[in-house]
Amino acid sequence: MLPLPSIDQELRCPGFCDCHLPNCVDVANHKGHIPDLVKCRCGEDSGNGLDWQWHHSEESDAQIVGRDIIFHPTYSQGTTIVRGEQPLQLGKVHFWEMRVITVLAGTDVMFGIGTDSFNLEQFKFHFVSALGTNSQSWGYSYNGKIQHCGDQLPYGQKFSQGCLVGIYLDRTRGHLEFYLNRRSLGVAYTNIPTDPNVKIYPMVCSTAAKSVVRLINSTSVAATLQLRAFEALAKQPVKLEELRQMPGLKSIMQLYWFLAPPVRYSRCSRDPDLELGDEAVLSSSKLRLGRKHKYRESDDVNIDDDLDLYANAHKIPPRRRERSSDEEYASSIHEFCDEYFHYLL
To answer: Which stretches make up the B30.2/SPRY domain (predicted)?
Structure first.
């Protein structure tokens, strides 16, 4: 029997996109491969493919088919932990994303990392929040909490079906950071081992029967000065957009795509307006465009292009001033336009 969704399902983060996903009844009645019920491929073409995949284990109560993990295909009797097929190399920055295919419920579903000393079979017959129970693992729960050494701390919003969970691991600095729908939740831990003798693997665990997770992106790049420069530029969207216009930097921008991944906003969200934090990082041109689209998509208000303030801004003639030269006159036009658009914002 499949677990029922939590009663606070409406409080969870909406999915990454609005594509149709199977409900609990569809999953329970499906006799074939559960991931076949999902046609959505949103976000899967953003990265550079997969640098690693999941590790197959005969003793694990999980079915691994390509990028997909089906936890407890028949019924659940404990916690199953799956790790990546290869350790995450020292001296590199690693980023990977997973899509939640089914509704999450039960004791816990966690995403994170663990060392080679972490026993994957220790909770096979126990329902626990496995990742982060000791010093050899770090985990992020679907309940919005992070855990290490058995200590759980509030960290982010609860999430479930349709969400993208990203993990950013800097093995040079020893930092671990989680993303939800490609939005950073901030650095969670700064105590990840940088010892070259310690092997660290990506891990996922679940106690829920027929819960499905898909690996959609996995990238590993060397921690170079170029990477650090793009990390700083990723915090300045205007400068980053200017770099995207330079043809010679296209391949480099694609290499570091995860520093500023493309974000989508689901219409399922109860508050579709941009938050203050979002507006702070958007360029002024994108912000004006976003506001214009917001009004155009409203059911109660219908604004034509001729009445759109921003669409007709270029039709307003600049105020002429008496200047002694053409250079001074051109300067006055730029000043007037700057003041006008600043007023609009």
So the answer is: 32-222
Domain span at residue 87 reads: 9-223
Q: Quote the Cα angle for 231-235-238, to 5°.
A: 120
Contact 116, 239 (CB under 8 A): no
Q: Dump pLDDT digits (tens) for 288-321.
A: 444 433 333 334 434 344 444 444 444 444 444 4
Residue 321 lies in a domain: no
The answer to the question of residue 286 being in a domain is no
For residue 157, being part of any structural domain is answered with yes
- Cα 81 to Cα 125: distance, rounded to the nearest angstrom: 12
